[in-house]
Write a structure and sequence with these properties.
475 residues, 16 strands, three-stranded mixed β-sheet, alpha/beta, 12 helices, 24% helix
């Protein structure tokens, strides 16, 4: 989510609260600490979501289209050279420290951003199969079979198709077949493994079953609510009614994970911000920003600022711009108050640099409802999908050690700062020294040992976006 997306979300929020909008704040914009992060991949100036997810989840810059691999892999899709390029994620660091972990997303749980949390792949599209590269493993099977995926306590999102055979119809829409060519049903295998392990688990695929999940009686929760991505909030169809909202998923996840006295890490992605921008729908994308705003508020209400570090960021920007000179309070999806001084026609303040909104020339917007959810804002260059933007993205922090997030830094700094704050990973020397930040070691008297927990929320922040919120709690 780039700054233009934050601006539009802020203004829309304010205008719905009966103000002009510009002076409003999104929840994370109220926090004390902020910074900028550089998002480029090692081989591309403008990044994709897999490479950036590897940066902010694994702590290394990566090639475009690869997840959980460092730059030594020869190229995207090169299976052989991925061996030895694997890196671990902050989720695995947290698991090794005894913490609970999870992910929440509105995309497929095997999509680019969440995949870097648990998988190592040379091709982000190898969600259910590897295109004949038998020496490599698809993303969904890594989630179910391998560490850290098999130890994620909470997995909520869409994407059932990557977990069932290509001969099997979807539970909601039988005409939609699975994508697996190996005949495995990974949903059944996940349940069988949890059952044999003797843990308390639930698998759900609709909102009714989701609402019935008792966090006190559930240690592992797998929820796959769609064959593909979860639909936009504005697609108010019966399909949306079958899915829990992002704030509801965040609430349930924190309820389950926070039971662990050693803390937790949770990755949360508002990926529909990104997907709507790719479709050229600025209205839908902005509505998803406000949904993320609600999710962040839920997380804030369920945690304590004195013992919880939250970090909100994005994996990359988009090419949305806010143009012209609209007056204060002008409807954010409306046209600028004055006509173009060249062609004498109205134009919207929200425009895309490239994308499906290209008209082949200027469209006369007189009488056009530019606030319609499926109105595509005009684009200067014709592309089937609106592309990402290459500028730096904002990083906001709240709580203990939030001061680490300041200035301008490489995106892969983020998980290292998170790990430092929570005393996980390889850099823990400061944790053994007395009275150092939230990782202070106590003398062996009557004082309890400190523990930390974290949750990370992304909004594929994402634009593709992954808008990410990270939470670390000292218990």
């Amino acid at each position: 989510m780039g700054l233009p997306s934050q601006f539009t979300g802020r203004v829309l929020k304010g205008q719905r609260n009966n103000s002009s909008g510009e002076e409003e704040f999104l929840e994370w914009e109220k926090w004390q600490h902020s910074a900028l992060a550089k998002t480029y991949n090692t081989d591309y100036q403008v990044a994709d979501s897999a490479g950036t997810a590897t940066a902010y989840l694994c702590g290394v810059k990566a090639k475009q289209g690869t997840a959980g691999l460092d730059d030594t892999v020869d190229d995207r899709g090169h299976c052989a050279s991925s061996k030895g390029a694997e890196v671990t994620s902050i989720a695995e660091w947290a698991i090794n420290a005894g913490k609970s972990t999870g992910l929440v997303t509105t995309s497929r749980v095997t999509h680019a951003s969440p995949s870097a949390l648990y998988a190592n792949t040379a091709e982000r599209n190898w969600e259910a199969e590897t295109g004949g590269n038998d020496d490599c493993k698809d993303i969904a099977s890594q989630m179910v079979d391998d560490i850290p995926g098999k130890f994620l306590n909470v997995i909520l999102g869409g994407g059932r198709r990557s977990f069932v055979p290509s001969t099997e119809g979807d539970v909601e829409n039988p005409a939609d077949l699975g994508r697996r060519l190996d005949g495995r049903n990974l949903i059944e295998e996940w349940q069988q493994e949890k059952n044999s392990s003797g843990v308390k688990y639930k698998y759900v695929w609709n909102v009714a079953d989701f609402e019935e999940v008792d966090p006190e009686k559930t240690d592992y929760l797998l929820g796959l609510f769609e064959h593909g991505h979860i639909p936009y909030l504005l697609d108010k169809t019966p399909e949306v009614a079958k899915n829990p909202s992002l704030p509801e998923m965040v609430q349930k996840a924190i309820q389950i994970l926070s039971k662990n006295p050693d803390g937790f890490y949770l990755f949360i992605e508002s990926s529909n911000i990104d997907l709507a921008h790719h479709d050229g729908y600025a209205v839908a994308a902005t509505e998803e920003v406000l949904l993320l705003d609600e999710a962040v508020k839920v997380a804030m209400e369920m945690t304590n600022e004195d013992d919880t570090l939250m970090v909100v960021t994005a994996d990359h920007s988009h090419v949305l711009s806010v143009a012209g000179y609209p007056k204060r309070g002008n409807p954010i999806f409306g046209t600028v108050n004055e006509l173009s001084n060249v062609d004498k026609m109205p134009y919207t303040s929200l425009l895309y640099g490239a994308g499906p909104g290209y008209r082949g020339g200027r469209e006369n917007l007189t009488g056009v409802n530019t606030g319609d959810p499926h109105y595509q804002q005009e684009a200067a260059v014709p592309l089937k999908s609106e592309p990402h933007g290459g500028e730096d993205v904002s990083v906001f922090a709240r709580g203990p050690m939030g001061h680490l997030f300041r200035g301008n830094f490489e995106q892969n700094f983020i998980p290292h700062a998170m790990a430092y704050a929570s005393c996980i990973g390889v850099n823990k020397d400061h944790c053994t020294k007395p009275q150092v930040g939230i990782c202070a070691a106590f003398e062996p008297t009557n004082q309890p040992e400190t523990t930390t927990s974290s949750a990370s929320i992304m909004a594929s922040l994402m634009l593709t976006i992954s808008f990410c919120l990270v939470i670390f709690s000292v218990l």
